[in-house]
Amino acid sequence: MLQPPTTRPSVAPPSAEPLPPEVEVATPGAVLVVDEACRLRDRSPSAMRDAELSALTIGAVLPESLLATASMRRLVHEGSSLDALWLARGDTPIEGGLDERECGAMLMRLRAVVGTLVASLDVEEMIGAGPASAAVGSTRRREMARLLGAIDNLGHAFAPTGARTHVDLELVVRRAVDARRGSGQRRGITLHIDGVRDARRPRSGDEALLESGLSALVANAIDASSDGAIVRIGVEASLAAVTLTVEDDGPGLLKPGRSEVGAPFASTKRGGLGLGLVVAKRAAFVHGGELRVATRDRGHGVCATLWLPTSMG
Q: Which of 47, 59, 67, 237 is the least crowded, having the fewest Cβ atoms under 10 Å away?
């Protein structure tokens, strides 16, 4: 008989192994923010770790040899002269499509969710009204929420991006966090936001995609946390960018049963669809930004960092 969900400490599933601290999920390459005169105004965390790019002086004109290597150039904001330059550093760009194998995996995951819903209807017909029926109804509602979430994530992960409009980053942060408060409260998990007003920087983009990407990072942090824990969301502004961090105290990055961590449909969660990080990476890439997800320095917990270029503060 199908049983309702119960609260539990967040621990790694028996088949999930902790990954070494040096393993991370990240968008490829590095990003520089330049003005109309090609003067450097800001740089991404990966650029700060790159020997050549970290040596560049803020305010100085970038050399032509470096500009010629830019793989992509994205406008930061319609009312700004700033551009984000994406520079390859040995990795291939993020692809937005699905290959045959990934399509098959997607359909099998969705089929499993729909199968659970159908089974719950069959069981309810057999047992009639009563406490057991209520338990089945709870399971069905949970599976319906998973199905709707999966369809939403698939749209954001692989569909064309929406219209580029003004993005209120502060509102994006607040909405993404508020959307997950209910799931956190059911397990006594507190979502703590710090520095959200630093997100008051104008930029253009697909607001729904950014909100979905950040919401996915918060959802992952809640899922990884034990009951009663605190998930911390931080916002910090620099010269021409905003950095969003989501931290949990879970077991750290875990190895999925199949595929690589961060790949489409790779998940360590029971029944997980493995699309959250795909959406977050796409949100970063489409907006000339950068995403890095890694086990925290002390060896447990995960820190997800989303860096986004903005107009200068």
A: 59
User: Residue 109 is encoded by which pair of tokens?
Assistant: 């995951």
Which pair of tokens denotes residue 45? 């965390």
The residue segments making up the domain with residue 141 are 100-157
CB 2 within 8 A of CB 120: yes
Cβ-contact 56, 40 below 8 angstroms: yes
Q: What is the pLDDT of residues 165-198, one digit of tens each?
A: 889 999 999 999 999 999 899 999 999 999 999 9
List, in order, residues 6 or more apart from 265 with CB less than 8 Å away. Answer: 102, 105, 106, 109, 259, 273, 274, 275
**Mean pLDDT, rounded, of the chain:** 77
Q: Is pLDDT above 60 for 199? A: yes
Residue 82 sits in the same domain as residue 174:
yes
Distance of alpha carbon 47 from its chain centroid, rounded?
20
Contact (CB, 8 A) for 106 and 98: yes
Task: Judge if 235 and 308 occupy the same domain.
Answer: yes
